[in-house]
## 1
Amino acid sequence: MARNVLLSVPAFRFFAVNLLVLLHLRQIAAGHDYNDALRKSILFFEGQRSGKLPPDQRLRWRRDSALHDGATSGVDLTGGYYDAGDNIKFGFPMAFTTTMLSWSVIDFGKTMGPELGNALKAVRWGTDYLLKATSKIGNGIVFVQVGDPYSDHNCWERPEDMDTLRTVFKIDGSHPGSDVAGETAAALAAASIVFRSRDPAYSSLLLNRAVTVFQFADKHRGAYSNSLRRAVCPFYCDVNGYQDELLWAAAWLHKASRKRQYREYIVRNEVVLRAGDTINEFGWDNKHAGINVLLSKEVLMGRANYFASFKQNADGFICSILPGISHPQVQYSPGGLIFKAGGSNMQHVTSLSFLLLAYSNYLSHANKVVPCGGTTATPALLKHLSKRQVDYILGDNPLGMSYMVGYGAHYPQRIHHRGSSLPSIAAHPAHIACKAGSQYFLSPNPNPNKLVGAVVGGPTNNTDSFPDSRPFFQQSEPTTYINAPLVGLLSFFSAHP
């Protein structure tokens, strides 16, 4: 149900003052080169690649790695992305990353210009791996992780030097994982839209696989955190449950296939799978706000009144995130950054800002606004709010620092990332053993290899402070799922600065 926000006079004045601050905040920079930031945000994914690197690899300090992944289980699991600054391939965040890269292309690909080709390569690097991970779906098996996180996190090694355990983890009928399987189905379905006209055969393969994986996820319901607790917790433990991923997957399958069965599944399971819960949460663990925004487009276009409750939820999401309207789950730092409790705050900033922008566009096309008690959320206001978050990331903040490596004059130098912080193979051809890398981890020196485009976790408190230090991983570690939504945001603002 929509959150009906009624503001008292003092609260409304507080909102108005905050809004004026946001609208007129003096920019620290004269403006931003969103095209340059877009190029770098996509380039970052090349630094996260696992497996055999292609001839057109642009970040040349990276080399081939993990070329035998899956061999112990008799399957080829090479490729894909390392999720963050470690050398593990976690399927859950990788699938979400792929979904968001795909959504970025679907909604904003027309404004990517010459970077569209690189964005498509980033999507395909993810889907090629997800196809491998689901290659045994006919036997009721999905591979969801490669690498033992405890072994990996006990070392500070380049991915090219890895000698830690490359254990393969899977889910099956007896050990379900509807969350990771559902997200994988969503990623494959979303990517099938991306490639529908560009590579029809590949698109069909992705969609057919998505259908099969979703059927598996729905038939064998359960959280992968229960089946694989030691391997995935506390790293990517799904504390939110698997129900949202089932709806999320069905929503993308509906969008990709236009088949009635998915519409009926969504409507039939809306209450059972708690579509209205936590309306302002969105990320690798919680899909609720994303489901509501995605399905609302159908309602706003006048095509699907059966999804009306999702639009009510999406409107409630918008109202809950406006600055000046008190909500316990969403706050703003003094510098204007969206702040949510927990680590790696930028993941919330980019994901929620993406939804603000996407919904703004849907509202614009339908000539609609969102009433929020004493104020009105117009498409222009939502675009401004999302742009303010992007500009904060790029340097319009109290520290005057870009949180994107390689963008601007002042950015993080000591990011929590093994490959970036250790000498490259070209500079140091000899093997660097597990514990031998500790000296580089503890060094106060800047990282020798620039992971261009990487956006770090950023401030995790409401004082806008940032320690540029590797041990402070919640602030200094980049992740693929921070960057993926940012690709769409930067695409739009590169054409609409």
## 2
Amino acid sequence: MDDPELATIRQRRMQELMAQHGIGNQQNADQQKAQEDAKREAEERRQLMLSQILSAQARERLARIALVKPEKARGVEDVLLRAAQMGQMTEKVSEERLISLLEQINVQTSKQTKVTIQRRRSVLEDDD
């Protein structure tokens, strides 16, 4: 049932596909590596800037917050970095100041949930 000509055509086509994907994967891998390097470098610069504006205790507290709520820690870091870039910080942020900043952010971002219960009237129910 196996046609030798069909088998050679399949093998040649498979090699062509592998060659195409091999070259494409190499270029894609190089681009991916470059993007990862850029992200890693940006993160290193970010951490360096944070270490310059935060005290050791504040950095430790922010690291603990990042373990539990990474998005909240990232937001606090963004606020701190923006303030430092605008020149609003004259000294290192202490743990107490970080706590007060966290409390302010919690008040601003607290979500108010409201539950409304609507009862549906049954078709069989008569309120006449």
